[in-house]
Amino acid sequence: MAWLLAAALAAGGPAAPAGAGARVTAVTGDAGAAGAPLRPETVIADGDSVRTGRDGACSLLVDEDAVLEICQGTSLRLGRRGGAGGAGGPRVLELQAGEIRLVAEPRAEEQRIEIHTPSAIATVLGAVVYVAVDASGTTTIASAESTVRVESARQLGSPLVLAAGQQVSARPGAALPRTASAWNPETSAADGCLVDFRALAFDASRGRGDDRALAAITGADAAGVLPAVGAASEAGPGAPSLPGASVDPGARAIPGRTDAGAVAPPDAAKR
Fold first, then answer.
1. Residue ranges per domain, the chain?
2. Which residues pair with 72 in a beta bridge?
3. Contact at 8 Å (CB) between 150 and 160?
4. pLDDT tens-digit profile of 1-60?
5. pLDDT digits (tens, 9 = 90+) for 92-125
6. Which is nearest to 71 in space by CA: 59, 54, 57?
7. Is 262 exposed, middle or buried (0-12, 13-18, 19+ CB in 10 A)?
8. Sign of torsion, CA 214 219 222 225?
9. Is 234 helix (H, G, I), strand (E, B) or coil?
10. What does each C-alpha distance from 269 to 128, 158, 201, 243 come to in angstroms?
11. 45 and 79 in contact (C-beta within 8 Å)?
12. SS3 for 70-120, per residue?
């Protein structure tokens, strides 16, 4: 996944200040945090909540080693175990409603990322994972790459481990299912943002006149390092571990926009 992290670093400016949780790499539509609209390179501090409207979405570089895509109609709080001062502890993403896609570099257990929802907790040690929470609090968690550990928010212990291409849904107050099901992003609630964050980051760099970032993005794109995007091809037997390159026609699009989905791997064009 180094190509994805390199793309995010190229798209943005300097690293977030020490103690900051994340910085914005791309944004579209209605998206804000701490009572202010988001802009590229906005710093999101631990404890801040990010909210997107029906036409809003954004991507964040979290702790300089994970990319978080926040879809339309989402409410999420950025935190860390031990509180905002718990530097180096597990990262916590509290997803109250909406949908996210997380791409995380491999990491040790003590540096894990936990995604907390009203009905489940997903623990990530390096994976591509989709999480969606509907209006009732029902949570759908899908793994597109590597394994994801899922526990009930009601009763910890006896986790269910998702393999790549699997998903599970949990309802608030209910026990976690004992088995996972196959993940089909064309029908799953966890189907991605359908936003081309690469293009948004490119436009932001061009608008700032940042020649270094613009050259890096353009060069990576020409070399095939920044491929096309789409959640629909991230599942299926025999597929490579990183996401594919088709667009999910059933995903929720932003009204009035032409978008392309989630970032796919560099070898997608060869398949």
1. 1-271
2. none
3. yes
4. 544 554 444 444 555 444 568 999 999 999 999 889 999 999 999 999 999 999 999 999
5. 999 999 999 999 999 999 999 999 999 999 999 9
6. 57
7. buried
8. negative
9. helix
10. 19, 40, 22, 12
11. no
12. ECCCCEEEEEECCCCCCCCCCEEEEEEEEEEEEEECCCCHHHCEEEECCCE
Just give the CATH number of 1-271: 2.60.120.1440
Beta bridge partners of 5: none
Beta bridge partners of 120: 152
Q: Is 98 exposed, middle or buried (0-12, 13-18, 19+ CB in 10 A)?
A: buried
Distance CA 23, CA 63 (A): 9
**Would you state the structure tokens that stand for residue 24, as one six-digit string?**
């914005």
- What span, in angstroms and rounded, lies between the C-alpha atoms of 58 and 108? 27
Helices (H), the chain: 2-11, 197-208, 211-222
Tokens of 176: 């976690």
Beta-ladder partners of 237:
none
Q: What is the pTM of this model?
A: 0.73
**3-class SS of residue 250:** coil
DSSP state of 52: E
Contact between residue 76 and residue 198 where contact means Cβ atoms under 8 Å apart:
no
List b or e across 127-149, with b for residues whose CB sees 16 or more CB atoms inside 10 angstroms. Answer: bbbbbbbeeebbbbbbbbbbbbb
